[in-house]
Amino acid sequence: MSSIVLGLFAAFVHWVSRFYQLKPPGNFFFIMIASIASCMPFDLEGIPVKVGLIAMGTMLACVIAFVYSLLITKGTFFKSEFVVVVQRNYATIFEAIVIGFFMSLSLLTGLLLKLDNPYWLPISCAAVIQGVTLQQVWRRTFQRILGTFVGLLLTWVLLRFELSLFWICCSIVMLQFIVETLIVRQYAMAIIFMTPLTIFLADVGDSLKFDPNDLITTRFFDIIIGSVIGAVAGWILHHQYLRNKSERQIRKTRIAMYR
Question: Carries keyword Membrane (predicted)?
Answer without folding.
Answer: yes
